[in-house]
Amino acid sequence: SEMFIPEPEPELELEQDHEQETTPANVELEPPIKRRKKKSVVWEHFTIESVGPGCRRAYCKQCKQSFAYSTGSKVAGTSHLKRHIAKGTCPAVQRSQQQQQLITYGSVPAKMPTSDTPRRRFRTSNSAVPFLAFDADLCRHEIAKMIIMHDYPLHMVEHPGFLAFVRSLQPRFDMVSFNTVQGDCVATYLKEKHNIHKVFESLPGRVSLTLDLWSSSRTVGYMFVTGLFVDTDWKLHRKLLNVIMEPYPESDTAFSHSVAACLSDWNLDGKLFSVTVNQPLSDAAVDNLRALLSVKNPMVLDGQLLVGNCLARSLSSIVQETLASVHDVVKKVRDSVKYVKTSESREEKFVDLKDQLQVPTSTVLAIDDQTRWNTTYEMLVAASELKQVFSCLDTPDPDYKDAPTAEEWKRVETLCFFLKPLFDTASLLATSAAPTTNAFFHEAWKILFELSRSSASEDPFIGDLAKSMQEKFNRYWKGCSFVLAAGVIMDPRFKMKLVEFSFSKIYGDEAASYVKVVDDGIHELFQEYVTLPLPLTPAYAEEQNGAPIKTTAAVAAEAEPEGSKSSSNSNNNASGLMDFDAYIIETTSQLEKSELDRYLEESLLPRVQDFDVVGWWKINRMNYPTLSKMARDILSSPVCTVCPDSVFDTTGKEMDGYRCSLRPETVEALVCAKDWLTAEKRDSASATASPTVKME
């Protein structure tokens, strides 16, 4: 039998005798009894009433059933009262659950613990047990959302263990099948997609795309198409738009087919600005993409805004080839680190020796993960700083025999020197916030300049290493330098000045010709924005204090008498005066400086570290109504196709076997919906990382 230990008696409510005798004035009264506050949760559901001399009973507030409480000095405790409420034996509670389909959560547990459970567990600050309505549809939605957010397999809803778990939580929930949860996930995807469609409908600027091709064990490819754009509030967004299965990923039409499918799916014809791909393309594939860009964007540099390579993939490729060129030295360092880190006793000897030698570094050794090159770089840096300890380790530990030589340590230091700018640039890409295009020109030209200067070194190892890295980085620079330069030109802290300075360092006497190419290109692009149709021209209403900007034509139209407007319009059309109006605008603009020229001639802003360049253009869009639109599109043009946590990957992405077994539409729904559901958190982090700069 179960033994119950009575809890301490709660406060006894003292009853006053209605037939009290009058106390004489000269008789001193006894001090009043100090009452103790009831603490048990049961008193939220029971009241105590006297039923006779010295006898009290507890009455349930719900069903009015009475229970023994105290007789004379004996107290029954509260365990039986807790069981009445917590186990659901109260008829009133049962009826309420059946009628309203309510389930109980909160202060009273589903199953009452035994009496030896500490009383503290039942204390609560709630005045009543809260009830939450059971909603089967909501449960289905939450299961679908859980599967999407955590990449769980759809078939988990049919796993016996999961079925038992759900049944223990809520027996009345009818568990869904694979087909049902698949439909729920697709429904969640379609709901979120509808919201993004609304954003695109009101989008004031253009969209840039990134294409990241994933492989699979089934020889089909999956193209991840991501869109970057600046919204009406001048906030930069990065959203995964499509995951398209490509049956023949090696074909020259795979990338152009995915772009065309994305534009059709999202109604983005005429709104595409640039495309960035994750791998070098064949000439035929590049021609197909540029032809598509020129058709979809007939006035944006004739399809020339095609960034040939992802910066993260380019850096990863260069690092891997560089590490492979000195594989023997890297392996020797890795083996030394592994020797120390795989034994606690050896690591203790290493730390003791480091303390004895008083090596001034707090660097901690770690074995690298060869699928992420940043860990290899960090391992080499840490080992290099502790080279003195490694060189002397054979004294306290005779088993350590294969330490790198002094010459090999020198090569490690040289290698770290060349890898550092690549590591710094990749780290910028790996930030949670999506950095704008202007952030990478400075990083890229510094890499190229250091490699160019080092390639002339008299040291054969340094010269050969630098030449090899320079040759690989030049391939990236050749295809991306204009987009990177355009981004930094739109930064009011640098403009053309940084382009001129950096080109003089890189190209020497030939710098002027390269600067002219960039200058001509940026002016040509601006002229195309001037002539673009609504709503991307200056005539597009930008509101300030609720009033749109009025163009010269609009002002003239308002000044025209009401009665003559319709006849004047017809006369203009008939007599060809619209061409004359265009001529007036063109010749007038030739006499006046353009927005771009005015912007470039103005003084540079001070270089502050936390500068939100998109926010600056938002503030100054009234001064540069056309140029601000061009800046918005340029600054959102991506240089990287991968998400931040994949920047340092040394292997390409591969779709797992389970998702390959699903329908392509289901794969797209699962992957895209996860990106969209987590976008709010990501955008919040981006806003925190890039505060708006207020300019006086």
From TrEMBL:
Specify whether Transcription is a keyword of the entry: yes
- UniProt keyword Metal-binding, yes or no: yes
Q: What is its main location?
A: nucleus
Gene Ontology biological process terms in this record: post-embryonic development
Domain of life, source organism: Eukaryota
Q: Which segments carry the region annotation Disordered?
A: 1-27, 554-573
What keywords were assigned to this record? Answer: DNA-binding, Metal-binding, Nucleus, Transcription, Transcription regulation, Zinc, Zinc-finger
Q: Where in the cell is it found?
A: Nucleus
BED-type domain ranges (all copies): 37-97
The record ties this protein, via InterPro entries, to: hAT-like_transposase_RNase-H, HATC_C_dom, RNaseH-like_sf, Znf_BED, ZnF_BED_domain_contain, Znf_C2H2_sf
* Quaternary organization: Homodimer.
Record protein name field: BED-type domain-containing protein
Per the UniProt record, the source organism is Genlisea aurea
